[in-house]
Amino acid sequence: xxxxxxxxxxxxxxxxxxxxxxxxxxxxxxxxxxxxxxxxxxxxxxxxxxxxxxxxxxxxxxxxxxxxxxxxxxxxxxxxxxxxxxxxxxxxxxxxxxxxxxxxxxxxxxxxxxxxxxxxxxxxxxxxxxxxxxxxxxxxxxxxxxxxxxxxxxxxxxxxxxxxxxxxxxxxxxxxxxxxxxxxxxxxxxxxxxxxxxxxxxxxxxxxxxxxxxxxxxxxxxxxxxxxxxxxxxxxxxxxxxxxxxxxxxxxxxxxxxxxxxxxxxxxxxxxxxxxxxxxxxxxxxxxxxxxxxxxxxxxxxxxxxxxxxxxxxxxxxxxxxxxxxxxxxxxxxxxxxxxxxxxxxxxxxxxxxxxxxxxxxxxxxxxxxxxxxxxxxxxxxxxxxxxxxxxxxxxxxxxxxxxxxxxxxxxxxxxxxxxxxxxxxxxxxxxxxxxxxxxxxxxxxxxxxxxxxxxxxxxxxxxxxxxxxxxxxxxxxxxxxxxxxxxxxxxxxxxxxxxxxxxxxxxxx
Length: 510
Known about the structure:
CATH superfamily: Sodium/glucose cotransporter
Subcellular location: Cell membrane
Largest sheet: none
Radius of gyration: 23 Å
Mean pLDDT: 87
CATH architecture: Up-down Bundle
Distance between the termini: 70 Å
Oligomer: single chain
Membrane topology: Multi-pass membrane protein
Keywords: Cell membrane, Ion transport, Membrane, Sodium, Sodium transport, Symport, Transmembrane, Transmembrane helix, Transport
Order of helices and strands: HHHHHHHHHHHHHHHHHHHHH
CATH topology: Sodium/glucose cotransporter
Family: Belongs to the sodium:solute symporter (SSF) (TC 2.A.21) family.
Structural class: mainly alpha
Helix content: over 70%
GO biological process, one term: proline transport
CATH class: Mainly Alpha
Strand content: under 5%
Number of domains: 1
């Protein structure tokens, strides 16, 4: 019960923050969607990092390390630190500049303008939203699992099926309601503030979680002795790649393509445009890799320790890798500390859900309703109402899908990221290759999503965590296919007009 009280207080604080940010809301759609380009370097760093560190990073990495071993850190965390910052630098700054110059709010607006194609938005809209929904599912599913695990035994008379814990469906519903409320009222400003607050919470409490578990897991007198005992207990096949036949050199190497997904995240594009000036990106580029290490390393170690002989994992938890982290928190911490640590885990989950909910509402409003309905047809107030309505719809759809089936958060996350990574050639070529044509863009997008759908189906809809294509991660042939299609078709089809090329590639003054 104590954990539930602390979690409830934390959620109430978030609601208060969202409602307070609404008092600073100017009423304009630009303020609701982009916070009037007023975000400084610290808020930009924290909102970007909070957005990218989802349940995938905490709940997913711990569960995957329990199942597959410490190599999980090398699979994504190490490469993500470098590739994410690279994308912020080579894509984010340039897109921010173009967005401020030409008034873009979404990716689709940029692509329509750059490629002189109105219909490209019709193709991209369902693809981007379709790939964001699995990303949302990661957070919604994980939040329910976390709350159910830490409240087990609190309500034995009400929830017998979950051993007295709040059912996952109810926990997910509450989290969705809280996030929806502060996004609904606060918009991008409320989201940026909430992300900053939650990022600080989950980073600090994440480190605390690590030390609490480390200090108790081995039953020894000192922290160092417990760390030694925990590390020695990890099975060899969770430490050495050679003893893990499912992780070949080629599969490991092609995992590095997955972090390219940040270049095409629509919610990250929206966060980039909130920056007050280009120099605000400097802090994010430098600090992001360090923050990833601070979050991922403890989670991966804790997951690997759970696979050792010092911890007895109940069959129900063993069958659900998403429950490993909340189980360890409940097992090795007291009620009060456990409540705070759980709040930290939920903070990581919600710090990405909010941006994604706001993003899909913005895309629908700007790129479908306003674009095809006519910009002069809707007032700013009506645009905000439309965005809020679609956000409610997406939250409802995501919550409904989360009730249908169970998937490992890590595996589902990798599939979601792989789809965005396959679209990376499009955003890179749009910014740096004059030869890119409208037809080339269509070919790239359709190839990417066709391969993604086929491979996703073949993997039993993410049910097979070891699915591969020719010994590689599916993202590799998807990325190769979309790149080849983009280049070949662009070379044999008409270029954009000279006016468009001058707009996006102005001649340098001598």
